[in-house]
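User: Some background: our group keeps a shared notebook of sequences we're curious about, and every so often someone picks one and asks for a predicted structure to add to the entry. Today it's my turn. The entry only has the sequence so far, pasted here. Could you supply the structure so I can complete it?
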Amino acid sequence: MLTRRELLATAPAVLAPAARPNVVVFMTDQESAQLPGPAKLPHRERLNARGVEFTSAFCNTPQCSAARSSLLTGLEPHRTGVVTNVDGGSLGKSLSPKLTTAGHVFRDAGYCTGYFGKWHLGSEEGSLAEFGFPTYERGRDKAVSEAAAKWIRAQTAPWLAWVSILNPHDIYGIVKDLPGVQPRPGVRPPATALANLEGKPAEQRQYMDKDQGRPTLGYTPEDWLRYRSYYLGLMEKADDCLGSVMGAIRNWDNTIFVYIADHGDALGEHGLPFKGPFMYEPLIRIPFVVCAPGLKPARRDDLAVSIDLAPTLASLAGLRWPAAVAGRDLSRGPTGRDAVFLEYYSKQKWVNPIRTIRTRRWKLNWYDSGHQELYDLREDPHEARNLASDPAALKTRRELEARLNAWRAPLTKHG
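Assistant: Of course. Here's the predicted structure to add to the notebook entry:
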């Protein structure tokens, strides 16, 4: 692990424009940090080898638009106003251009800024200039990564490229492609099954019976191996795109390169596919790797969250973020957090708020319906046993409830 002195040396208060590094944020969609088996990810392995890998990183919410709003602004979803997805089939409110984004901060510091790929924070048409990205190109993953690489090669320093690919979000294709998928060697089956939803909040079973879980209700153990194999194949496609962007970097000694995901995937644990009203580890744990000039390769296990990205990027580039943020500057050393606080609002138009506190050992999920889940992650890492009604865990539950109530007090506006 890096010493505090080494970390501080990489984060000057302000850098002269000529000395500012170029920046890439490479963001995947629905990538869990807990992959279910081996995959060929040579570009990711190369990036991990040269960067700081945060092994205990979490999304602020396992929902695309809301999570993206936090990554761009350093604010939690209830502060950005984007509490769920913003597409036509959802209840979401688009990101306001009045909020300070990474695009604004870097553009105003003289950077050329470009956004490539999925936006999902409002209209996908037109320009993103009002969010600080005069250059904006959409398309499928291969085209997006190649467009970003071409743009990077054409720039003179300094520049910021935010590259947002879709995979492994294409896991939804498994519904039609399942019969033709062969399980991969080494892919692990889910540790838990649908029967494990007994004793869990009723909303999880509703998701399976009435919502997006329905197509997988009859999946056999072999089918879940196919699901997870399909997912790993999508990860390899994402890695190819990563390689295209990495190949455009001319000077790694003057480039900040971040790899991160908006949120994870349920991966069939507890018989659950995709994402929905649940906060299990595969869904909230995300990859987070930071490469930057002067940062020595390391693995850090302090608790990190999506909101940390924005202030960390600015600090590493020698810029000051001009507005208050909820995130912490990871370049300043370990966060010192003993818990992270996460939130969830709705699944499309199905409003189902959940608030979560996750410490090193414990996790409490508190639904607005009153349902709760309490897990001892040290003794039960797969979250199979809900201890919310266990008298032996009452003291711990009460302590976590008090902390969660204190955090959620300002959230009453959103339930």
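Suggested note for the entry: The radius of gyration is 21 Å. Residues 20-336 form a domain with the Alkaline Phosphatase, subunit A fold (CATH 3.40.720.10).
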